[in-house]
Amino acid sequence: xFKSGGLAERLSRLQCRQRSAISFWRHKxxxxxxxxxxxxxxxxLVLEVLRIHEECSMQLALCEQLHxxxxxxxxxxxxxxxxxxxxxxxxxxxxxxxxxxxxxIIHIHPPWQSLSIEGFSCSVILNTHFSxxxxxxxxxxxxxxRMPYHLGQMFRLLDACGTKQVAASEASCVVGGSxxxxxxxxxxxxxxxxxxxxxxxxxxxxVVVQRVYSVPLADSSPVSILKHRTRSSTAPPPEERxxxxxxxxxxxxxxxxxxxxxxxxxxxxxxxxxxxxxxxxTCVLRGIKVVQRVTRERHSRLFSxxxxxxxxxxxxxxxxxxxxxxxxxxxPGPAPSFCYLLSGQxxxxxxxxxxxxxxxxxxxxxQTLRDILQSETKTCRCSFVATVLYKRMQSADVxxxxxxxxxxxxxxxxxxxxxxxxxxxxxxxxxxxVLISSVLEALNSPAVYQMSFRDAIRENGVLLxxxxxxxxxxxxxxxxxxxxTTGRDSPCRSLPEPRVKTLLQPYRLDxxxxxxxxxxxxxxxxxxxxxxxxxxxSWPVCNCCGSDNLKLSSESSQxxxxxxxxxxxxxxxxxVQLEVFLTSSSLNDxxxxxxxxxxxxxxxxxxxAVEGSELHGYDVESxxxxxxxxxPVYVRVVTRKPALWIGLEEISLRGCR
Length: 657
Ligand SMILES: [Zn+2]
Fold this sequence. Notes:
The chain is an alpha+beta fold. The protein folds into 4 domains: 34-68 and 81-145, CATH 2.40.50.140; 171-220 and 240-351, no CATH class; 369-481, CATH 2.40.50.140; 510-536 and 578-650, CATH 2.40.50. Helices cover 17% and strands 32% of the residues. Strands 9, 10, 11, 12, 13, 14, 15, 16 and 17 form a 9-stranded mixed beta sheet that branches. It starts with 6 loop residues before the first helix and ends in a 7-residue tail after the last strand. Residues 542, 544-545, 547, 562, 564-565, 567 line the site of zinc ion (ZN).
């Protein structure tokens, strides 16, 4: 049942109306026996069938057009003009009704349509519902059935329109008479066309692995459910469970791309091993299934990666070139507009023996952040190494929800005499980007790390890591990554030394300005003009564990007992919280609200070591007019309408000035 008023319902109604119009016309034309009057009507085609064959349940008739007997007022035509060949397409219903055969005379009544194809000698007649046989040759021959065309040939040969002799595909890829397939192929398209049972590709295909990455595995996916069941006896701890799936982006010698989804990865750090094993090499794909054909319109981010791999590093083979010799002079044309999603298992990708780096491989090109920020391209993929100065998480758990990173690199920190650029840049890591465990550890540590970002997306000036992006911690131990995996899992294995020597500390930040964007870092200097009384708090915390779960001891009202670490405290620490409104001489007509850190609050209150009781009676007047800064701040919100309003938070950033 179709949705009322929907496209499908309207289309179905239209088809119904067409069917009844055709049967009504047929009924009328049978009862109306005078054929001569029909011929006289304008727009009626009179055709003699020469040859006929069946293709994809349609019947295709090569006909000679006969001109109706001339009337007096019709212009004289030369004899040569009278014989024109046309190709007529009959759909299944019309063909069954008409059963056309060679030497039959057929009338086609309007509305028929004529299609002329460039480079094709005769025109094609379509929409031939109102067709009538007026002379039967009584030739009992039925239409010869032909095999459908190879789609792969059509993809590349559309411009040549079949005039070019189609290559009989790779010699090794020909379908045998018994239905047995040659097992080897170099074209993804031809392998996918020759699909076997249940969408599985029977042939092995030679491809170049352009990228190896992992994607998050949805919890509800059938694979993960299966995994848990079969492993139930020795259930791994939650963090050891497979949460990511290995993927490869491959390309064949003809330039066609495919994404192959492979097995779940038990430990996300294994990704690096697969990258080293496969990326850049010629591999054999086997035992794969077709999941989906995707197009540029719906998967723009995937295609931004394909665009970064285009034009190819070497001339491509051409499906129309029977010798399959790459044509040096031929331009590769625009990047493909489609890509196949395939699925396979661990054994589906295997490097060919002795394979080194393929000449078709295009490795990610490392750029500086300055080059990336000043690039003119709207959407592109970029790869770089940067220092992570600060992180901001949507949820307390890294790896759940978005993470914002503030990055910098030497190109942004050095003296910028011409074309000044920002000192830091924000990057959003969305949930479709897998953070491998070494990256998670680094993000959870307070140290400043250098990380490499591969195939990040630059979209409308914003940096983003999503699907197909890979983040890795840069370490000096990089050369020894091929060590056995058993040693890498021990919990006491410390993180590699961060390599931050290339950047001179302290880092420079931009000062807050009109063009400041959310999620960036700035330095702020200003004068306190107001205090948000609702956010002013002070409370005692345990000086051993930092917990605020304290209880007054029963014996003395001066001592506390920590409920978390069970220690008795003579003098608990005091935490303070305060948000103030500032004005800045550099930013007029702008309201800035800053959440301050403890040290700044204490210095504003002129209190070196404040005890809880003393803070309660602080005087708002005493901090008004006081100067704050320069302090490093994280920009939380920027509202430009109705007036500029910036929400900030002071952060502690080691080594920043
Ligand atoms: Zn405690």
